[in-house]
Amino acid sequence: MRPKLPYLLGFCLAGLLVLLTLFLRNYEFLLYAITATVLVTILYRTDRYFGFEAIGLWLFNVWLILHSLGGLASWKGTRFYDIVLVDLVGEPYDILRYDQFVHVFCYVVMAILMWSVVRKISRADANPATVCVVTILAASSIGALNEVIEFAAVIVTGTTGVGGYTNTALDLVANLLGAILGTLYMDYRHRSGAPERQQA
C-alpha cells in the first residue's frame, strides 16, 4: 500500500515554498521551489513501482524544511545557508556551514530513496557491493543535476546567491559524502534482515 501522509506533507510544503518565494519575490529560490514540487510528484508517481522506504519519504520532507529555511530565513542578518555551524576549516572553505550540512543530509535521503530503485531493477542475486556503488553513483548524479539547476538559476535571475566554484565543489563533495552514508545505512539494514519497505 502506497503511503499517503508523507506525500501529502510534501505537496503542502512544496506548495507553501512556491507561495513564499513569490511573496518574497525571491525568484532565484522559486526555481528550487518548483524543482521540489516536481521531485515530490516524481516520487509519488513512481512509488507504486519502486516501493520507496517510508523513512526516506519522511526525511525528504525534513530536508525540504531545512532547505526552505536555508534559503529564506536569516539569523542576525546572515542567511541560514551562510551560517557556519562548526568552525572546522576557515576561509575560503568555511566548513562546516549550514549549507554543507543540508547537502549531506539531502543526499543521505537521496541514497535511501535510490536504494529502492537500484534494488528493484537489479537481479535478486546482485553483488551487494555493486548495489552499493550504483546507489552511490545514482544519488550523486542527482546532486550533479542539482548543481546544474543552481547554475540555471544564476543565469536566469542574474544573481550569485549560490556562491562560486569553491562552493559548487564543496557541494559536490558533501553530496557524495551524504550518498555514501545513506547507502551504508541501507546496506546495513539489508544485511541485518530489516524489511525493505516500512509503512508510513
Number of strands: 4
**Rg from C-alpha positions?**
17 Å
Distance between the termini: 10 Å
Mean pLDDT: 85
- Which outline best applies? globular
> What low-confidence regions span 5 or more consecutive residues with pLDDT below 50?
none
Strand-and-helix sequence, N→C? HHHEEEEHHH
Share of residues in helices: over 70%
Number of helices: 6
Compute the number of structural domains.
Answer: 1
Strands of the biggest beta sheet: in what spatial order? 1-2
Strand content: 5-15%
**Largest beta-sheet characterization:** 2 strands, antiparallel
Would you tell me the structural class of the helices and strands? mainly alpha
Question: What does this entry look like structurally?
Answer:
With 200 residues, the chain is mainly alpha-helical. 72% of the residues lie in helices and 6% in strands. It is built from 6 helices and 4 strands. The protein has helices spanning 5-24, 27-50, 54-72, 98-121, 128-157, 165-191, and strands at 74-75, 78-79, 84-89, 95-97. Strands 1-2 form a two-stranded antiparallel sheet. It has a two-stranded antiparallel sheet with strand order 3-4. The longest helix has 30 residues, at 128-157. It is globular. It starts with a helix and ends in a 9-residue tail after the last helix.
